TrEMBL record:
One of its GO terms (cellular component) is cytoplasm. Residues 52-65 have a biased composition (Acidic residues). It comes from Aegilops tauschii subsp. strangulata (Goatgrass). GO terms for biological process: proteolysis. Residues 16-236 form the Peptidase C14 caspase domain. Belongs to the peptidase C14B family. Residues 47-67 are annotated as: Disordered. Gene3D superfamilies: 3.40.50.12660. This is Peptidase C14 caspase domain-containing protein. GO terms for molecular function: cysteine-type endopeptidase activity.
Length: 249
């Protein structure tokens, strides 16, 4: 089994081939899935701006394509969910697992996966059919793709500020803190619940202290100020019991 991790949030990167431009991000996405085979575990993390634009091919239930905004989006355009799905979802073959953690506004269904998990008021999960209305194929080639996103398609994702006033997304901190501090491998349901709880706690107490180990602080900074609370989302290529299936990269 091999684990490939692609984390994208490098606005200050000086190497032109590593800067998060539209072209570089698309190249990196294709690199991530190229040659993947059974037993591979892939991780794609994006922390940045997200947006929506008019759906022009009829594959969105709400008439809007979700997108992530690369560094040069104003010049070369955003990367819409259709492109993301084509790049890192459809190539996944049998036995390959992809986790995408997208920390951006309007990111709820940004991988265009056909199954969206919603938590009802009684706390029970319910899978919703999010297939393309025009019948477009949005699934994998036999593999399993899971998206954990920062908020719904009509919400804003919040920023926080950590050491050296380094900006970062609320989901990035809350998700990694929830996974890192779990006493045992959590189920997906427990992970979502804990992530949301940390978001709520940080919103109530801007001075909350949940330091992560020094080994990962350069990648995930402590958040000390959130300006709001969002609803983390989970979507998947396949339905599964989120309260029984253990989260594992």
């Amino acid at each position: 089994m091999s684990l490939l991790l692609l984390m994208l949030r490098a606005d200050e990167e000086r190497d032109p081939y590593r800067r998060p431009t539209r072209a570089n991000i698309l190249v990196a996405m294709r690199w991530l899935v190229h040659g993947c085979s059974s037993g591979d575990s892939l991780v794609f993390h994006f922390s940045g701006h997200g947006d929506q634009e008019e759906d022009k091919d009829g594959d969105e239930q709400d008439g809007q394509d979700e997108s992530i905004c690369p560094l040069d989006w104003q010049l070369n355009g955003a990367i819409v969910d259709d492109e993301i799905n084509e790049a890192i979802v459809r190539p996944l073959v049998q036995g390959v697992r992809l986790h995408a953690i997208i920390d951006a506004c309007r990111s709820g269904t940004v991988l265009d996966l056909p199954n969206l998990c919603q938590i009802k008021k009684n706390g029970k999960p319910q899978w919703m059919d999010h297939s393309a209305p025009n019948g477009a194929w949005k699934n994998t080639s036999g593999g399993h793709a899971i998206l954990i996103s920062g908020c719904t398609d009509d919400e804003d994702a919040q920023d926080g500020y950590g050491h050296e006033t380094m900006a970062m997304g609320a989901l990035t901190y809350s998700f990694f803190a929830a996974a890192w501090f779990a006493h045992r491998p959590p189920t997906y349901g427990q992970l979502l619940q804990k992530t949301k709880a940390i978001l709520l706690d940080c919103n109530r107490d801007s001075q909350i202290h949940c330091d992560l180990p020094a080994s990962i602080l350069p990648h995930v900074r402590k958040v000390v100020n959130f300006s709001g609370v969002q609803e983390p989302q989970l979507s998947s290529s396949d339905k599964f019991d989120i309260n029984r299936k253990t989260f594992m990269l």
